[in-house]
Amino acid sequence: xxxxxxxxxGTIGMVPSNQGLIPDAxxxxxxxQHLNDADELTHEFVIEGYPSLIDSSNAxxxxxxxxARDIEGRWHEFDAFIxxxxxxxxxxxxxxxSFMFANSDKPIIVTGSQVPMYKVRTxxxxxxxxxxxxxEELSGEKNSNGVFLxxxxxxxxxxxAHKAHTSDWQAFSSPNCPERGVLGIDWRWRSTETVKxxxxxxxxxxxxxxxxxxxxFPGVQVAHxxxxxxxxxxxxxxxxxxAGNAPDKDPALLALLKTATDRGVVIVNVSQxxxxxxxxxxxxAGSALVKAGVISGKDMxxxxxxxxxxxxxxxxLSSEDIKNHFL
Length: 327
Ligand code: ASP
Hints:
Layout (H helix, E strand, L loop, with lengths): L1 E8 L4 E2 L6 E2 L3 H11 L6 E11 L6 H13 L6 E5 L5 H11 E2 L5 E4 L12 H16 L7 E5 L2 E4 L4 E2 L8 E2 L7 E3 L3 E3 L10 E2 L9 E5 L6 H5 L8 E6 L10 H12 L3 E6 L12 H8 L3 E2 L5 H13 L4 H6 L3
Bound molecules: aspartic acid (ASP).
């Protein structure tokens, strides 16, 4: 099997500096050496470090686009793709790749680590080897490919992951969807339907600053949201309470949302609970949002909702078409 591994930055390949950990330009060579030394591995690997390695907290939609175009450019040359990435925004990048390579017929796996590879007590190789094993299994007997985030033994659907812990080995959860596979000594798989729609690759020119997040909190006022809903914004994720509620006793707040949706901003309601689904209109406080034109993000993570809006806006779809993709 021919596997392409891209190092984009992130803790996995970081080394100490005067300012703290920074990505190491020589990491791709170190990893190549490590994998070449592992005689059990019979695959052919090509490992490349990006010219500008980043801490993933600096990542934007442009970085998702760069990674996707890199994979697309090598699509016919490789059987599987692994993206080594920082954990801070790994869930966003995995979601972006899952929209850009919809129903991918080759494995694309995003992973990284909590502790850099140069340290003795590191999860780096465990995660890299797990991602390689997932590539083998997915394109072998299981013949069930797609885009995933692999971390600490969990193979999570790319658009379902959430960074849930700052320091546990198990840094990611899959709040509303069972993992596709769990790796202990052996894999345990969740069965999926075998007939998938044909894959499609769509990599838009990602625009920056067009999607925002609107937090709901006790005492939230129109002034808090006004700047966030500025003229360049075309999409927003509303981080609501519980099953999709926000204060409904402040007419100015609701009027601001209505003015935005009337001018074509797509506002998607996702719960700040972190798990469970938005039940639009179950409470009067939620119905007010529906009247203001806010649509339900159902059980999506806020990361996936943010990325899906960014992706669809990048495709230059109309507001109506974007809303239809959330039905
Ligand atoms: N700040 C780092 C990053 O996201 C954290 C990590 O990789 O775990 O790049």
